[in-house]
Design a protein that fits this description.
Strand order of the largest sheet: 3-2-1-4-5-6-7
Number of helices: 8
Structural class: alpha/beta
Distance between the termini: 41 Å
Shape: globular
C-alpha cells in the first residue's frame, strides 16, 4: 500500500484572513501543493496581491472579499467558491481580530463583541456553511482552525482574545466528534509568529525578550511554520488526525 502524500491535488480550499501573514502563507502553501485556493478577507486589495503571487508561481486562486463575522457574507463566500471551482473540500478558519490590548476589566463592550464576532462566530459560521455543502454532496473534507497558545493559559493584557481562542479549541474538539468520520476537524495553536497582527508583541523589546528567553528554539515563528502544520492537517497524510490541536510555538509553552 502506498504511503499517504502531503499534497492537496484535486482539492478546493477556502482560507480566511489570507491577505497577509499566516493566512497568506497557508494559501500559498496549499496552492503550491496542488489545491485550488479561495482567498477571503475583508479588503480585496491585499487578496488580489496574494492571488497574483500564487498565479505567478503556477497555482490557481480566486479572491473574494468577505467579513467573516457576517453570516450572509460567509454564505456568499461558499456559494462563490462552489460556483468558481465546483466544490469545497477544505476550510481554514484563520481570520481573527484583537482590537484591545490591556487588562480585561477595562475592555469596552464594542471591542468584546467584535472579538467574539470574528474569532468565534465567524469560525463557526464558516464551518457550518462548508460542512452543509460537503454533506449535501455526500463528500468528505477537512476543517483546520487557527487557534493560539493563548487559549491554554492565563494571558494578561490579551484576556478576551485568549477566551475566544479557548472557545475555538473547544469547538474543534466537539465538532471533530460530531462530524466524523467524513469531515475531520483539527486546530493549530501558534505561539508568537512574526506578522503585522502580532507586531505589538514582536516590536516590544521587553515582551520579545521574555518570549525568546523561554522558547527553546530561540526565535520567533514565521508564517511558513504554521503553514506546514496546516498542510499536514488538511492533506490525506493527516488523515488520522481528528480533534487534535497542534502547538506550533518553538517550545515556548514548555518553558
Amino acid at each position: 500500500m502506498s504511503e499517504p502524500q502531503i499534497h492537496l491535488r484535486d482539492k478546493v480550499a477556502i482560507v480566511t484572513g489570507s491577505s497577509r501573514g499566516i493566512g497568506e502563507a497557508i494559501a500559498r502553501s496549499f496552492a503550491a501543493s496542488g489545491a485550488k485556493v479561495v482567498l477571503a478577507s475583508r479588503k480585496m486589495d491585499g487578496l488580489e496581491q496574494v492571488r497574483d503571487a500564487i498565479e505567478k508561481e503556477g497555482g490557481e486562486a480566486f479572491a473574494f472579499a468577505c467579513h467573516t463575522g457576517k453570516e450572509a457574507e460567509i454564505e456568499a463566500l461558499v456559494e462563490a467558491a462552489v460556483g468558481r471551482f465546483g466544490k469545497v473540500d477544505v476550510l481554514v478558519n484563520n481570520a481573527a481580530t484583537n482590537p484591545y490590548f490591556g487588562p480585561m476589566m477595562n475592555i469596552d463592550w464594542g471591542a468584546w463583541e467584535k472579538t467574539f464576532e470574528v474569532n468565534v462566530k465567524g469560525y463557526f459560521a464558516a464551518t457550518r456553511a462548508v460542512v452543509r455543502h460537503i454533506q449535501a454532496r455526500k463528500g468528505t473534507g477537512a476543517i483546520v482552525n487557527v487557534a493560539s497558545v493563548a487559549g491554554f493559559m492565563a494571558m494578561p493584557l490579551q484576556g478576551v482574545y485568549a477566551m475566544t481562542k479557548a472557545a475555538v479549541v473547544s469547538m474543534t474538539k466537539t465538532l471533530s466528534v460530531e462530524l466524523g468520520p467524513d469531515i475531520r476537524v483539527n486546530a493549530i495553536a501558534p505561539g508568537l509568529i512574526e506578522t503585522k497582527f502580532a507586531s505589538a508583541l514582536t516590536q516590544n523589546d521587553a515582551i520579545l525578550k521574555h518570549v525568546l528567553d523561554r522558547t527553546s528554539l530561540k526565535r520567533v515563528g514565521q508564517p511558513s511554520d504554521v503553514a506546514g502544520a496546516a498542510l499536514l492537517l488538511a492533506s490525506d497524510a493527516g488523515g488520522y488526525f481528528n480533534g487534535t490541536v497542534l502547538t506550533v510555538d518553538g517550545g515556548w509553552s514548555l518553558g
